[in-house]
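User: I'll paste a sequence; please echo it back and then give the predicted structure.

Assistant: Echoing your sequence first, then the prediction.
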Amino acid sequence: MIDNALRIIYMGTPDFAVPALKRLIEAGLTPVAVVTQPDKPVGRKQEIKPGPVAAVAHEHNIPVLQPTRLRTGEFARELAEFKPDLFVTAAYGRILPPDVLAVPRLGALNIHGSLLPRHRGASPVHASIVAGDAETGITIMIMDEGMDTGDILLQRAIPIEATDDAGSLMDKLAELGADLILPAIKGLLDGSLQPRRQNPDEATVTGLLTRKDGEIDWNKPAQEVFNFIRGLNPWPGAYTYCDNKRLKVFLTRVVSTDEGAGNGDSGWEPGTITACTSEGIQVACGSGTLELLEIQTEAGRRMSCSDCAHNYRLGTPLGGN
C-alpha cells in the first residue's frame, strides 16, 4: 500500500497522460496540483478549451497550473508551496529545469512511451512504428536534467501489431503507463525496485513532429512506406500530391515487397499508380507495391479507395508539388 498522505504533483497535457492521472485519483493519491500546457484554441471555431489533463483536474477540483515560462525561478517557488513529495509526469511537453526538478523530496518519475534508451524525445510512439520495431512499451524513469536520460525504474514491453497506427498504439501505451505507475511509486518508496542506468550507446532520439513531416517518400521500400503512413496516423498525417493537389493517405496495405516491383524490371517509377482495383489504388515504391485503401482529397472527405479508385488513371505520378 502507498500512504495516501503522499503529496504528488502531476504534470501532463494530452490524452496519453489521462489514464495514469485517473489511476492515481482512484487509488486515493489525488495530486495536490496538476501542471499542464496553457489552454489552446481547438476545432473550426478555434474555441479556447482546456486540454484533456486539465479537464480531468477541473472535474476533481485539483488546482491547475499552466505556466508559460519554467526557467524564471518563480515557477519552482510556486511548486514548492505545495510541499510535494513526488512529481509524476507524462507527456507534459516541456523539459523541466534543474530548480524545478529539485523541488520534490523524492524526485520525479516520468511515464515514457518507449523502451528507453530507444526513442528518447517527443515522438516515441510514432518513431517505433515508422522504424518497423517489433515491440515497444512503457518506461518509468527517474527524471534528470537530460531529455529522457534518467535511470530506469520499471519497464514493460508490448508487441506492435501490423494493424496498429500511432493512435491505437498510443491508447495501449497510455493504459500500460497507468498500470505501471502505482507499482513504480511503491517500488521507489520501499526500495523493491532498483534504478538502472541507460546505455547511451543504444540511444536513439526522436523530435517533435509537424505537418511538414508527413510527406511520403515513394523511393523507399513498400514496407517502409506502409510503416511511415501508419506511424503518422492520425497526427501529423501522411500525404502525397496528385496533380499538384495534396492527397492525405490514412490506410494502406503492402501488395508486394519484390525488389523489381518498384522501378526495376516492372518499368514503373516510384510513386506511379500501377493499378486501380475494386479495393484500392496500387502505387509503385522504391521496391515493392503499396495499395492505398483510405484517402482524402483537398476538397473532399475521408473515403475508401474502393469508392474512388475509378477516378484515378494508370501511370499517374504521385508526389512532388
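Residues 261-265 have pLDDT under 50 and may be disordered. The radius of gyration is 23 Å.
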